[in-house]
Design a protein that fits this description.
heterodimer; A: alpha/beta; Leucine-rich repeat, LRR (right-handed beta-alpha superhelix); 2 domains; 9 helices; 6 strands; 9% strand; B: alpha/beta; eight-stranded mixed β-sheet; 12 helices; globular; Distal membrane-arm assembly complex protein 2 (chain A); LRR_dom_sf (chain A); FAD-dep_OxRdtase (chain B)
Chain lengths: 238, 491
Amino acid sequence: MAALRAVLGCRGAPALRPPPGQSRGAAGGLLQRLGQWFYEVEVVMAWGERLRQHRLRSRNAYRSFLRDTYGENVAAAVFTLSCGGGVRFEGQDSWIRPESHWRPEVLRLRDVPVVALDLSGSPLNYNGLDNLVPLTRLQHLDLSGCPHLDDWALGRLHVFGDTLQELSVARCPRVTERGLATLHHLRELRRLDVEGVRVPSPGLVRILLEEMLPDCQVLGMDLGDGTGTPTGGEKPPA
Amino acid sequence: MLRWGRALRPRRGGAPGGAPGRPLRTAAPLSSDIFRELGRGLGRLGQTLKDQLPALEHGAGGWTPPGTPAGPRPPEEADVVVVGGGVVGWSVAFWLKALEGRRHGMRVLVVERDPTYSRASTVLSAGGIRQQFSLRENIQMSRFSASFLRNINEHLGVPNEPPIDIQFQPSGYLFLAPPQRAAKLEATVRLQREEGAQVALLSPTQLKAKFPWMDTEDVAVASYGLEDEGWFDPWTLLNAFRYKAMSLGVHSCSGEVQGFITSAEDTVSLQTARIKYVHIHMPDSLEYQPVTCAIVINAAGAWAEEVMGAAGLPGVLCQPPLPIQPRKRYVFSWHCPNGPGFSCPFLIDTTGAYFRRDGIAGNYLGGMSPPEEDEPDTSDLSVDHDFFQERVWPRLARRVPAFESLRPRGAWAGFYDYNAFDRNGVLGRHPKLENLFLAAGFSGHGLQHAPAVGRAVAELVVKGRYESLDLRRLGCRRLVEGEPLEEDGVV
């Protein structure tokens, strides 16, 4: 019989479970009481989730009014500042950050193209990129640590193919090697920071990235855990 | 809470009526009562035997006699019966539930004859999604599906379950056109751009600069999808639809629809009829269950015509016959260490052969559609490996010289639900059977169009008309009137 069980590969006999509520005492009672509210709890959780999504959507909304009135540079700058990021216009050497009184500066520079955006740690997602894609002179883009940035969003960066020189997608939890593969559109890229991006075999991905972007310096993805310094090839990529 | 628990316990222990198992006796028991021992022993033996039996389906239920169908039985009545539990069928079921006015207002039953999906077209496909079609409706459906897949967790996320990751690879489709088809390709790209798809036209020089591994000898122009194109994992999408639909209360059962009872038997005129019952035959058994239904949706994919040929449908009502037939298509997998790298798109060659990257370790998937006269036999899913050696490989190796040395890894076959009439899906109400809706014949695009198709059919059922996408041109009328709506971009 035991052999038969082994051959059939069954998951064993069903465990005998004591009837609920008889042997658990207080804990069973508490769980049972909570169990009565199961659907209510579920609905409240669904509401919470919907509220979170709504908030994310409104923070990433496309500011078409700003763009129509002041042009794409102001729209992108205002969007970035409202996300808590930094903006640098052409010819400037300091970043405009939200804590400084930014509004007059941004409007004064409305005809100057935006060359650098720092959106690290912002709630930027695919829809939020609507505000950025009209930019024509963007050279530096820092998207590190954006929790909602995914592979779909990385696929939209091809619009910066002629200008973008530095890109960071470090520590974005939802970015994978599938999204990194779309960066081959960025022909002018000189520095790419992919530290802390979760990929199955960092060494191989780094080699493929370097092969795909021969002029680009790939930072932060090494053999092993992908966080240390380059240590040479003591471990072949899996 | 503790006090409360304590208060409960004595009441339960001291329930009136005494212990039911207490034997009735008059004298002190013997030290060994053979009959009592026997009873206990038999109980133990029974338990041991029960434990030895394999635990089937429902863990707690233990064992069921052989021949009993696994899984839930079909209910006796349902509002909507969806025939076919592929990705289209489950998408229709999900959207019916998502669009219904009142929670649990509608009982939806999905019937799938192959619960392991061993022959299902959904999971045997290459999993591509593209915007580059030549028909406006197809482009719109693709754009809807892409935005659905992008926000899949908003649509199909189930509370307390991990987020869905369909492993989308946004690499784009690259269509190559020889000189004689260049003008046509440009016209379709213009249409695609009108619909909002991001498609770039590339000259052979640009192509060579972008993809140096390619031989662009006879290419006049190429169109390259920049956004929302690529491939994903079909099995994850199918399961996501299934779990979400079931969490919304859709019933499912394994069985095969092999018969209908229509109102044609009651009436004299045979112009139109309604389906009253669907006979669902249990797998591996002669048993069947008639299910009373208000609406039937035929989403049986390649076997949609077979369903229509089932017993009970008068032949007059099935005219014109659905031009949908299964066609076997092979997908080959190979390894080529120095093949196209990270930037490899989903390439459609001028000859019709296609390939894509599979993972990052130098593996590729590809195939091609055979010419009309060489269609393989569709009775099974066996693979003709010579087809790769003689047809596919030479074409691909000419396009990508690195493929001259490659190592085949494996192959499988799947069915296209091929619409021989005009290679487009047939969608909407059946012309003669009033409560039958069709959603089949997508000729290899069913997976990528499933979210849009499900929504369109559900709108037709719930609201009576198309709301989000106008797909009236894909209806059955073109079959009746004999006006094909051609799609050029069938791979």
